[in-house]
Every structure is written in C-alpha cells, then in structure tokens.
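Here is one chain, start to finish.
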Amino acid sequence: MAQKNDLLDRRRKLEARISTYEHRISVVMKLDDDATWSTQDGKRSDSFFDQEEPSDDILEHYPEGWFTPEMDRITFPSALAPGEINRLSLKSIAMVEAELRKGQVTDALDGLSLALGEKSLCFRTEVRNANSQRTTHRAWDNVHKFDAEARQCRSTYRYARNALHRLPVDQDYLGTLKDITEDDMKVAGDLTDESRFGQRSDTLPWFWGIGSPDDSNGPRMQECECNVFCFAAYLIRA
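Its structure:
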C-alpha cells in the first residue's frame, strides 16, 4: 500500500507538470482542430485528465491502471502525423526539438555504455568473488540494477531515435543511429578481460565508438579511445 501511494503521488506530480507544459506549448504551436497525430510514438492519443489537477479520490472512480499519465501523448512536433509540420508551419520548432532529441540520444548512449561497464565490472569483481549466499545475492542484485539502467537507456534511445525520424533531420545523421540489439547489450571481453586488452575494436557494439569512420583520426575519436583505454585500465587494476 505504501508503494501504491508513493506511485500515485508521483503520477499526480507528473500529471501536474504535463498539464503546465501542455498549456504553455499550446500557446507556442497553436494547433488547429484538423491537426492529426502520428500512430508511431507509442503513446495514448487521449489525455486522461483535463487541465485540472486530479482529485484525491481518483482511484475510487476509475479502475486499476487508468491513472497513468506517463502513457499520455505529449505535444511535440514529432508526435504529429507526416506532413503536419509543414502544413502548420512548425519547421522552426521542429528543428529545436530535433536538436534536443540529438542531445537525448547522446545522453542515452553515454548512459548505456556506463551502465554496461558498471554491470560488467560488478559481475567481474563482486559476483565472482562472492563467498557466501548473502554476498552472492547482493552482487546479483547490483548486476540486475545496472542491467535495468542499461535497458532504460536503450528504451530512451529508441524513443528519441523514432522521434528524429519524424523530424527535419539530416539523413546522414539518421544513418548513424542504428538499432541496439540484445547482442549489443553484452560487453565484449576486450573491455573486461585484461588478457584481451588491445584486441581489435571492431568486436565492440557500434555505440562504443564516437564519430563516423571518416572522423577516425579526429578529436572526438581520440577522446573515445582515451576513455576506453582509461576504462580498461581501471578494470585491470580492479
């Protein structure tokens, strides 16, 4: 019951923030009654609440699972159906969202790499060295925690990537945003095994590399190589 109350409180706060945002974005975007929405964003098309804040007795009037503001569609240019951005003259606003989505993609990939690295390090240093049932359970709990964080980052990346496909974005950039498979969620031995340090980097998933192949000698790739080297050195010392 305590967890349900905490979840309800969080959803109430989220609903209030969504309502405030929707009021402000309606002034900026000025959508007409003929605006159509995309069916690819995975969100509900109908908002459960009006602009008013939900009442305290909401669970008494609606069944379990109806009060889920996290599933409501948020008004973004990327949530509109194809052609609506040009029809409503929202290209300038769509370009702003595109830049924000690019930052979201970068943050998600950085978080994914970090979570996978922490998961691998936890497995190598805690699970393998656990000497009792209690420490084993604790070590596996940490592994599952980092795995959940990695999957959350992958979900954020996929959502931002899908939004970018509906925005005016350079196609060459979209070509660099590949899908993240289950195999990509595994950390290669090049990063976790000191005996394999220095092996070919093409065994790593694509998101471990920063920059395009044409920029292999650029400052961003050199920074990536430095970060990978430092991370591998940290694993070796551990």
